[in-house]
Design a protein that fits this description.
By secondary structure, this protein is α/β, with parallel strands linked by helices. The chain has 15 helices and 24 strands. It has two domains: 266 residues, Aldehyde Dehydrogenase, Chain A, domain 1 (3-Layer(aba) Sandwich), CATH 3.40.605.10; 183 residues, Aldehyde Dehydrogenase, Chain A, domain 2 (3-Layer(aba) Sandwich), CATH 3.40.309.10. The strands form seven sheets. It has a seven-stranded mixed β-sheet, with helices on both faces.
């Protein structure tokens, strides 16, 4: 099986190919056409030519195109989910959720085609009218990660399209097969040639060419903080609009009045769902000392029972990590944490699952010191560090000192504590009596500090990235009226 790049409405082969493998068993999933810098140029040229016609398609009609995409995604949900699991390893239930999120976003953003809201406001002068409207930004470059290979791109693709932009999408080279299958859905829905282009390539050359291309006016990136900062430097030199969604070091706060069974269920899901490979994964558990021992006891018991294996088996709870590089990186963090004095309660080892694949045992650490590697650095794997505190105030202080600021949750049955936490926690997402994962598409998604650069994905906020405000004034007085001068008497 071979998947190709998609440029100007055609599937394009390359001079060479690269491969994607199933991280659960290391079997070949597909050969992928390797895009080169010249392909990026061709894709941008196609998007540039398509922009003038696509932007003039009425926004409600653009929205109806997204409804068609949503309908086809529903029909192909299981097919795409199976391919997604083979491409990146997450368990099949999560893969179905990944696709469902794109379905939800298609319908939500399709509706925004009739609500690309501007506004009117009173003006200062007689016989004059003022309004603000949205224009599409132009040609958009999207760079997305492998951990949510359909959901995260949908957060960018759908608002960009409904707003009237044309797109070049560079997905992660770790999940090219499901990315190409996703684009096939848009082709089936009838998205015009050049409006949506797909570029797939390992390495930095194609991505750098997309970032630096003078005709690409907006860039939206989700991935590591180090890569995001590099993109920001390049984009800044070219005065491009840039949205960044980067790392996280998310915490669950547990107060001594919490429902401990709920805490256990939610923590296991938040820490080890997607094998810890989520930007919203819980990697710190900040627990009030009075309840800490019981929480640790239950978590260790439940963690040891988690089933690792191929995500296509519906009985499996934890799939592989994405590749050997990630496996070794996670283990190096664990070993460094032990050297720094943290104590592994369970896990802390590369797991053997039939001698194949890239599996890491879900890991719990106790005795994690403030400022240590485990407490501060994003590991992006199934590793949870437990930190004990005396009070709510200390818990919030520990949470907020992170250089990241994506998601925090707190478990308490005290409404006063809950509202204090909602006020004083400084992250983009806050959950009460729930884990740190589980965002819904109708609300803004993103973080503060090292997690992002101020923009948000999903919800109506996503449209801010892909539109430009235009203020329009209509003077029907028939004479020159100088605002702030002629309408004030001395």
């Amino acid at each position: 099986m071979e998947f190709k790049n998609y440029i100007n409405g055609k599937w394009v082969s390359g001079r060479k190919t690269f491969q994607t493998i199933n991280p659960a068993n290391e079997e070949l999933v597909a050969d992928i056409a390797h895009a080169e810098v010249t392909d990026v140029d061709s894709a941008v040229d196609a998007a540039k030519k398509a922009f003038d016609s696509w932007r003039l398609v009425p926004a409600p009609i653009r929205g109806e195109m997204l409804f068609k995409v949503g309908d086809i995604l529903k029909q192909k949900k299981e097919e795409l989910s199976q391919l997604l699991t083979r491409d990146m390893g997450k368990v099949i239930a999560e893969a179905r959720g990944d696709v469902q999120e794109a379905i939800d976003m298609a319908y939500f953003m399709g509706g925004e085609g009739r609500r690309l809201l501007g506004y009117t406001a009173p003006v200062e002068m007689m016989n004059k009218f003022g309004m603000a409207v949205r224009d599409p930004s132009g040609i958009v470059g999207l760079i997305t990660p492998w951990n949510f290979p359909i959901a995260v791109p949908s957060w960018k693709i759908f608002p960009a399209l409904v707003a009237g932009n044309t797109i070049i999408w560079k997905p992660s080279p770790e999940t090219p097969a499901v990315s190409a299958a996703f684009v096939e859905v848009f082709e089936l829905a009838g998205v015009p040639p050049g409006v949506f282009n797909l570029i797939m390539a390992p390495g930095a050359d194609a991505g750098k060419a997309l970032v630096e291309h003078p005709d690409v006016r907006v860039l939206s990136f989700t991935g590591s903080t180090s890569t995001g900062r590099s993109i920001a430097e390049l984009a800044g030199k070219h005065n491009k609009k840039l949205s960044l969604e980067m790392g996280g070091k998310n915490a669950i706060i547990v107060m001594d009045d919490a429902n401990i069974e709920l805490v256990t269920d939610a923590t296991l899901w938040a820490a080890f769902g997607t094998t810890g490979q989520r930007c919203t994964a819980a990697s710190r558990l900040i627990v009030q000392k009075g309840i800490a021992n019981k929480v640790k006891e239950l978590l260790v018991e439940r963690t040891k029972k988690l089933k690792l294996g191929d995500g296509l088996d519906p009985q499996i709870e934890i799939g592989p990590v994405i590749n050997k590089v990630a496996l070794d990186r996670i283990h190096s963090y664990v070993q460094l944490g032990q050297k720094e004095g943290a104590r592994a309660l369970t896990g802390a080892a590369i797991a053997d699952v039939d001698g194949k694949g890239f599996f890491y045992a879900p890991t719990l650490f106790d005795g994690v010191k403030p400022g240590s590697t485990l407490e501060a650095e994003e590991i992006f794997g199934p590793v949870l560090s437990i930190i004990e505190v005396e009070s709510l105030e200390e818990a919030i202080e520990v949470n907020n000192r992170s250089k990241y600021g994506l998601s925090t949750s707190i478990f308490t049955q005290d409404v006063n504590r809950a509202f204090t936490a909602m006020r004083d926690i400084f992250t983009g997402l806050v959950y009460i009596n729930h884990g740190t994962t589980g965002a819904e598409i109708q609300f803004p998604f993103g973080g503060v500090r090292g997690t992002g650069n101020g923009h948000r994905e999903a919800g109506q906020a996503a449209l801010e990235v892909f539109t430009e405000w235009k203020s329009i004034y209509v003077d029907y007085s028939g004479k020159l009226q100088r605002a702030q001068i002629d309408n004030r008497e001395e």
